[in-house]
Structure formats: structure tokens, C-alpha cells
Amino acid sequence: MKLRVVLTIPNLLTLIRLLAIPVLARLIYVGKPYDLVAFLLFLGIWLTDMLDGYIARKFNQITEFGKLFDPFVDKLFQLTTAVMMCIVGKLPLWVPLVIGVKELAMILGSLFLLRENDKVVYARWYGKAATVLFVAAFASLFFLPENAYWLSHYIFIPPMAMSLFAYVCYGINFMKLRRQPDSRSETKT
Question: What's the mean per-residue pLDDT of the chain?
């Protein structure tokens, strides 16, 4: 599969989200005086993600590039937020570790399917539900008092459970897609 970069409004919004992630990381790291600004940027990144998906579907601006670029930026957004929250002490280390391992496995599996079978794994409802739960959990950390950081161990149980459920579902889909005939070999015969 050869991906062509098409500059649509949704892809431009995704690019803006990508460029905002390092700014968010810095604001989280600086902390207290910028907590509200960091939260608003966090919220803006997430809302822009919803907006680009809506625009892509509503105005028929879905591209193959966008189908890969958007989830990649989403994963980077989640992982960066988790790592930075861990660095500043608001999040236990197990959360970014589990997110990182799961996302790396998802990316490697997707790349394998793309290369070997010319198939793209798209986001499903369970992956989107996990994302919403993670966003809510991360958002709560911006307002969690310092003496209550221990609650983050419990706040992240529902999103982590949904994320692991999604991981299993994607794994089952991966195995099904892997067993399907290679579409490239079908077109060559």
C-alpha cells in the first residue's frame, strides 16, 4: 500500500495536534502556574481529535494517510501525557509502562499487517471507548490535589481494563486478518 499525503482539513488538524503535544509536555512539566493552561491545551487536543474525525466523515475527507496518521498522533498524545504525568509525580509508573507496551504491540502488529497483507487495522468502538476513559482519567489529574495523587492508581483501573479488552479484541481481529489471503497476491494473478 502506497500512502499519499493529502492535505485535508482533518489531516491539518491532526498535524496541529501533533505539534501541540511537545507544548503540552512542557506545560505539564512546568506545573503549578500553568496547570490550567496545560489542561485547556490537553482538552483542545482531544476536542480537535473529535472534530477532525467528524469533518472527515461528514465532508468525505477520509484519506488512507489520515487513517494511519490520526491514530498514531492519538497514541503519541496518550503516551506523552502519561509519561509527563509520571515524571511530575501525578501518575504511578505502571500506567505509562502498560500504555507504552500495549501501543508498541499495536503499532508493530498494524505495520506487519500493512506490509505483509496490505491491510490497515482501523479504530473500533472499544478502542475509542478506552480513549475516552483515558482522557477522563488524565483530565482528573490536572485537578487532583497533591495529597491525593495516590488515587491515580485507582482512577486508571477502568481505562486500563477497557484498553486491555480493546487490545484482546484487536488481537483477535489481527489473527483473522492475518489468515485472510494476501490482497497483493490476489491482484497479481
Answer: 87
